[in-house]
Specification:
With about 160 residues, this protein is mostly helical. The protein has one domain (about 5-40, about 75-155). The protein has helices at about 5-40, 45-55, 65-90, 100-125, 125-130, 135-155. Helix 1 (about 5-40) crosses helix 3, helix 1 (about 5-40) runs antiparallel to helix 6 (about 135-155) and helix 4 packs across helix 6. The protein is globular.
């Protein structure tokens, strides 16, 4: 494969991964907005707490929820790029049927476990208390399912 062909392929993979991350990230945003609209929860406060987790001084700013959404989407893209590089590409040809979906959702559930059971209780305990665990777990599983769907429809390596 020529150098230019590699860069074209790398660019295609990066675009697919970014799209998958945004798909997953927006799926979570919609789920949390739905949950907030049906309960006394506040999706605006969730976005503000994302900002507080990363940049505590900015959490009091009026635009903190928008910053939180931007942070969430940026982290979603980073997560998808890492996932595509470490999991999807090496195993994509062997992911038949629902296997890709299961692996992707399982990976995102593992990310949820690290976030909600290890990192956030130390870094921002108030974030953990905003919603029931099952809501946040379903949110991450929805991210995984959306990301798997996006990857299956946008990036499947061709057989040699």
């Amino acid at each position: 494969m020529q150098r230019n062909d590699r860069s074209v392929k790398a660019g295609r993979i990066l675009r697919c991964a970014m799209l998958a991350g945004l798909t997953g990230g927006f799926a979570e945003i919609l789920w949390i907005a739905l949950y907030g609209s049906l309960t006394s929860g506040s999706s605006v406060e969730v976005a503000r707490q994302v900002t507080a987790t990363v940049f505590q001084p900015l959490a009091a700013w009026p635009v903190a929820p928008l910053i939180g959404i931007a942070i969430h989407l940026a982290l979603s893209v980073i997560l998808a790029v890492v996932f595509v590089r470490l999991v999807w590409i090496p195993f994509a040809l062997s992911l038949r049927g629902g296997t890709g979906l299961l692996i992707t959702v399982g990976t995102l559930v593992a990310v949820w476990a690290v976030n909600f059971l290890v990192v956030l209780p130390v870094v921002n305990p108030s974030f953990v208390a905003l919603m029931p665990y099952w809501i946040t777990l379903f949110s991450k599983a929805l991210f995984g399912a959306s990301m798997a769907w996006s990857l299956r429809n946008s990036y499947t390596p061709r057989l040699p």
